[in-house]
């Protein structure tokens, strides 16, 4: 039963679906971390964006326009965070906590103002981004079923891994972001304005997290429910750190997490283990994965140093 | 600069807290002038109205428990008039950030001594209540939807504990689900297997009670039934709820039952994707989600409002039994299955007749619905395994 379910395309499908919002936020975290600021407000940005996605896709009656506005607003929250941290010299963690707290109450407040609902945005006629059947690929048996017919944002998230990688490692701005993150003073000594760079990085981070938030209510689900980001922003922060704050590393960790999540869902269906144990699985897998990774890294270092 | 900044942060935090505790305009106002004016006009009448305070560890607008509680009290106020009965609602918010203020708020209300009874509910308020009831032995409390199990210490003769026989209403849901899953005439059923689903929030005693009744009801009509059981682990991650429900639907479940707060709403989204049925809980979810109503045959309700209405009326007559638990089922109107036009449209008549019969049999005592109360974890696990 479990084995059957594991080999079914639905499993891989579910894994990719669970990965998508975390992947967006992981990339967002990677960009911010590379510039030397930890963006802990991801959770709040995602929650706000999940609501904005519903509100604006309903207002414009266009999911794409809704996504566009949501991304701008996500970028704006990134800007606000940067403003507090860089201009007003707030502690970056405190400012982020404030944003996360506003998000929990603020989203409910906004939803109430707009629709009179507090729990679920069901009375707002929001739109979702479509699922896409990929021509040719969908005809490949098994593989086609896994890869094809996902939400378009899932594909965008995968493309974003490459885009962010190229951005960070192959463009002048990416180089500057990394330079500022490595050593602010050194970067400033060659004429880079570290503030400008960090502002840019946090805005980009906000944009990416907003896409993940939008996916929650406009792809994963078809409505906004309160607190629906459910800690994904924090998981992404961990995933990004575990992946060494690189897009590729972060992608692998979030994929591992998504797969473990989908696996634990199947375990609940088939195995007679206590569900609390099964639910630990995604976190335990990620931890063990990280353990193995850092152990092998340590080995390699030992070998290189010739001891 | 730093000062300005810290001030700003403080404002921001206050705003976020205030946003959680926003009071809607329609909340019945019990400001002092309103209650005092009639009192001065009719000095001879009963000195003061019976006053209740409803403290919610959440907010109104949940279209569920808390709204139901508010409606029950409003109904009583409308019937008796504001000079006989009045109440105040305090919305404390539900998030982790709100939790620290629940107990202080409760203690503040006790401290005023203005209220004849303070109403609170759910398992999350248990410890706060226990502390407050000991500190204020003269203050009376109504506690709903979680068993208060310290009555035998003799210290809590100021608490009336009302519970709902969610197992009874779940029995009907289980019976309906089991009959639907084999009904070939229904459009979204695969009659080849006899499998129904259950999506719980956490495995606490209340959710187990739902589950035990659900399984018994299903087995009552279909001894061979299989029930797929999953728990989200919280009551708010709707996306995770959707994924869990999808796994169930993809593996042959035709009808699911969600008892997981807003995480359970994920099951309804999953039902839409998989073209299957989902039965709602706590609020009429077909009315809550009109666009998805064709996938929601009915919902199981706990009638918190009814129970408070009844309790306060009894208390006014001095008949309410404090220091004890009372469980309300179908016969007292404590629980109900939504049976509106939408239900009649979706559920075939032969099933509906059966459901009505079962309900009568439960009321008359011909069917005794099992409960999770007093059962050990092993016994409940055995019940769950019996339908694997």
TrEMBL record, chain A:
It holds the Pfam family BPD_transp_2. The chain crosses the membrane at residues 14-33, 40-58, 64-86, 93-114, 152-169, 199-221, 233-259, 280-298. It is found in: Cell membrane. Keywords: Cell membrane, Membrane, Sugar transport, Transmembrane, Transmembrane helix, Transport. Its main location: membrane. It is a multi-pass membrane protein. Signal peptide: none annotated. This is Simple sugar transport system permease protein.
From TrEMBL, chain B:
Its main location: membrane. Residues 1-21 form the signal peptide. It is found in: Cell membrane. Residues 51-367 form the ABC transporter substrate-binding protein PnrA-like domain. CDD domains: PBP1_BMP-like. Residues 25-45 are annotated as: Disordered. InterPro entries: BMP_lipoprotein, PnrA-like. Keywords: Cell membrane, Lipoprotein, Membrane, Signal. This is Basic membrane protein A. It comes from Sedimentibacter acidaminivorans. The lineage of its organism: Bacteria, Bacillati, Bacillota, Tissierellia, Sedimentibacter.
């Amino acid at each position: 039963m479990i084995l059957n379910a594991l080999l079914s395309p639905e499993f891989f499908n579910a894994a990719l679906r669970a990965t998508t919002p975390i992947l967006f936020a992981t990339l967002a975290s990677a960009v911010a971390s590379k510039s030397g600021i930890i963006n802990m407000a991801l959770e709040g940005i995602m929650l706000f964006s999940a609501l904005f996605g519903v509100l604006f896709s309903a207002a414009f009656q266009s999911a794409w326009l809704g996504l566009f506005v949501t991304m701008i607003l996500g970028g704006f929250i990134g800007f606000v965070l940067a403003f507090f941290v860089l201009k007003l010299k707030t502690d970056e963690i405190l400012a982020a906590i404030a944003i996360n707290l506003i998000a929990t109450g603020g989203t409910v407040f906004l939803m109430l103002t707009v629709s009179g609902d507090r729990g679920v945005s069901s009375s707002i006629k929001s739109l979702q981004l479509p699922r896409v059947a990929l021509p040719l690929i969908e005809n490949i048996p098994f593989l086609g079923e896994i890869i094809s017919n996902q939400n378009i944002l899932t594909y965008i998230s995968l493309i974003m891994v490459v885009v962010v990688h190229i951005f960070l490692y192959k463009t002048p701005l990416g180089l500057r972001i990394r330079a500022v993150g490595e050593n602010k003073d050194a970067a400033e000594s060659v004429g880079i304005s570290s503030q400008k760079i960090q502002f840019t990085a946090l805005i980009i981070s906000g944009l990416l997290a907003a896409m993940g938030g939008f996916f929650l209510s406009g792809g994963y689900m078809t409505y906004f429910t309160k607190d629906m980001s459910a800690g994904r922003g924090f998981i992404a922060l961990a995933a990004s750190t575990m992946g060494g704050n690189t897009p590729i590393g972060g992608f692998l960790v979030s994929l591992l997490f998504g797969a473990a999540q989908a696996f634990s869902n199947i375990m609940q269906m088939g195995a007679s283990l206590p569900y609390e144990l099964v639910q630990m699985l995604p976190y335990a897998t990620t931890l063990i994965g990280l353990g193995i990774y850092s152990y092998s890294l340590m080995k390699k270092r030992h070998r290189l140093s010739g001891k | 600069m730093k000062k300005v900044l810290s001030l700003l942060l403080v404002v921001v935090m206050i705003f976020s807290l205030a946003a959680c505790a926003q009071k809607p305009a329609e909340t019945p106002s019990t400001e002092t002038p309103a209650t005092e004016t009639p009192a001065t006009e009719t000095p001879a009448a009963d000195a003061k109205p019976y006053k209740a305070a409803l403290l919610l560890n959440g907010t109104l607008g949940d279209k569920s428990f808390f709204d139901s509680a508010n409606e029950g009290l409003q109904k009583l106020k409308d019937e008796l008039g504001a000079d006989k009965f009045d109440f105040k609602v305090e919305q404390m918010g539900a998030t982790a950030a709100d939790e620290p203020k629940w107990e202080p708020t409760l203690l503040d209300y006790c401290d005023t001594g203005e209220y004849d009874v303070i109403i609170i509910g759910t398992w999350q308020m248990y410890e706060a209540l226990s502390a407050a009831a000991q500190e204020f032995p003269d203050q009376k409390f109504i506690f709903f939807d979680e068993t208060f199990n310290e009555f035998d210490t003799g210290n809590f003769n100021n608490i009336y504990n009302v519970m709902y026989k969610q197992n009874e209403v779940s029995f009907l849901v289980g019976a309906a689900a089991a009959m639907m899953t084999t009904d070939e005439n229904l459009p979204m059923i695969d009659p080849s297997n006899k499998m129904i689903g259950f999506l719980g929030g956490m495995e606490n005693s209340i959710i187990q009670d739902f589950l035990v009744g659900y399984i018994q009801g299903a087995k009552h009509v279909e001894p061979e039934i299989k029930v797929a059981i999953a728990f989200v682990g919280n009551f708010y991650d709707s996306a995770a709820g959707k994924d869990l429900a999808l796994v169930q639907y993809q593996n042959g479940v035709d009808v699911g039952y969600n008892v997981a707060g807003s995480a359970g709403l994920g099951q309804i989204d999953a039902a839409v994707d998989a073209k299957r049925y989902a039965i709602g809980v706590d609020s009429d979810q077909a009315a809550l989600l009109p666009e998805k109503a064709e996938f929601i045959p009915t919902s199981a309700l706990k009638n918190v409002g009814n129970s408070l209405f009844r309790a306060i009326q009894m208390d006014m007559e001095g008949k309410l039994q404090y220091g004890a638990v009372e469980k309300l089922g179908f016969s007292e109107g404590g629980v109900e299955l939504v049976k509106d036009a939408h239900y009649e449209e979706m559920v075939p008549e032969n099933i509906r007749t059966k459901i009505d019969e079962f309900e009568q049999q439960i009321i008359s005592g011909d069917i005794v619905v099992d409960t999770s109360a007093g059962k050990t974890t092993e016994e409940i696990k055995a019940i769950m395994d019996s339908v694997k």
